[in-house]
Write a structure and sequence with these properties.
Helix 6 packs parallel to helix 7. The strands form 3 sheets. The chain has a 5-stranded parallel sheet with strand order 3-2-4-1-5, sandwiched between helices. With 247 residues, the chain is of the alpha/beta class. Strand 7, helix 6 and strand 8 form a beta-alpha-beta unit. 29% of the residues lie in helices and 24% in strands. The protein is elongated, with a radius of gyration of 19 Å.
């Protein structure tokens, strides 16, 4: 087969944070497939067809991309951040597993990108400097009870936690629930970072102690990083970090 698929991460927003590998794949592509705002970040050019689609059709989008590649197209499936972190890489492989046998023989590459949590952590200092986990607060693909259990267990294990998809108009209560579990489980004043639109002109970072953290401080462009019991601000600076040594 002459077609191929590259599943690419476009990073957190700034074009300077798109990797050279991803830029090279986009330069070779005949087709770009992805969620509407991510496809909009790709510059149109002659010979390139853009295929934007809604965020709730991940498997259909993956199948469309695989069908294009099977027909000989050079396809880039775009996600923000890293395609393997709450993004399209898993959907493409799920479609391959359940699709026609020839899809498994395609040239499929996953091209990493800079995730929102890593970009936010870098801006703030090093809050993910020791053990951490990432939890997606969207209940679109898993029950709320599973989210609540994972938040509670992560807090009990004293991980720093990066929350993706913390709050939207359709899901205004998920972050409130998570913060309530953290306040109950941790019972301390560990720092919470609200990092919105990192690396874009709308970037805004705000750090508050856990008792003062409120859901309305976040939206869907925000990643929320909750420190562990060891995470602290350096006095007189804006730097937030978690020491490498365990307690």
């Amino acid at each position: 087969m002459s077609g191929w698929i590259a599943i690419a991460g476009l990073g957190p927003g700034d074009d300077a944070l798109v990797t050279p590998e991803v830029s090279a794949a986009l330069a070779e592509a005949t087709d770009v497939v992805g969620y509407i705002p991510y496809v909009a970040r790709v510059t149109p050019r002659a010979g390139l067809t853009l295929h934007p689609s809604d965020n709730r059709v991940e498997i259909e989008r993956a199948a469309h991309a695989l069908a294009l590649a099977s027909a000989g197209h050079r396809v880039v499936v775009v996600s923000s951040g890293d395609p393997g972190v709450f993004a399209m890489a898993a959907a493409v492989f799920e479609a391959i597993e359940h699709g026609p046998a020839d899809w498994a023989r395609l040239d499929v590459r996953v091209l990493p990108g800079i995730t929102a949590m890593l970009a936010a952590a870098a801006r703030a200092g090093a809050p993910l400097g020791h053990d951490f986990c990432a939890i997606n607060l969207s209940d679109n693909l898993k029950p709320q009870a599973i989210i609540d259990r994972r938040v509670r267990l992560a807090a009990q294990a004293d991980f720093a936690i990066a929350f993706y998809n913390p709050r939207s108009k359709a899901r205004p209560d998920g972050l409130d629930a998570a913060l309530g579990i953290l306040r109950e489980t941790c019972a301390d004043r560990r720092p919470v970072l609200f990092a919105r639109a990192v690396s874009t002109p709308d970037e805004h970072l705000h750090v508050v102690p856990l008792p003062d953290a409120r859901a309305e401080m976040a939206d869907m462009r925000t990643v929320v990083i909750v420190g562990s019991s060891r995470t602290r601000m350096i006095a007189g600076t804006r730097f937030l970090y978690t020491p490498r040594a365990a307690a």
